[in-house]
Amino acid sequence: MSHLHFSNVFPLLPGIPIFLRVLNRERFIKGPFHLGVFSIPVAVTACAWIVLIAILFILPQVNPVTAETFNYAVVAVGIVTTYSIGLWLWSARKWFHGPRRQIELEGSVGVDITEPLEVKKVQADLGDLKD
After folding, report:
1. What string of DSSP letters covers 22-89?
2. For the chain, what are the domain ranges?
3. pTM flag (> 0.70)
4. What's the mean pLDDT in 87-105?
5. CA distance 37 to 12
6. What is the mean pLDDT of the segment spanning 49-76?
């Protein structure tokens, strides 16, 4: 029986920041190292390569494809992705506001963020904690 290889689908993940950089090139602040006029062509080539490799990695290794040789990683990742997006749209977008920024507590309120009980008490006093 074939093994599940979730890593076959995850080569797409490194391409997300590259793709977002291509889409938002006007707002992107260049660092000390960049490729100049070659930045966008290299980024587009990298995105295309990542997509090609991700497709090639999910193809079956043997022919003909049977229930035993089918690569079920795509099905498993699809189920998890569908569930995650559905749960976010149905519920989590209403109550999840991202991680709390404890550094702001230290600067504005004077809380020692290395003391979890003190942070929790101040967050409760400020109404930031929701159970």
Report:
1. HHTTTTPPP-S---GGGHHHHHHHHHHHHHHHHHHHHS-SSSS--TTTS-THHHHHHHHHHHHHHHII
2. 6-95, 97-131
3. no
4. 74
5. 25
6. 81
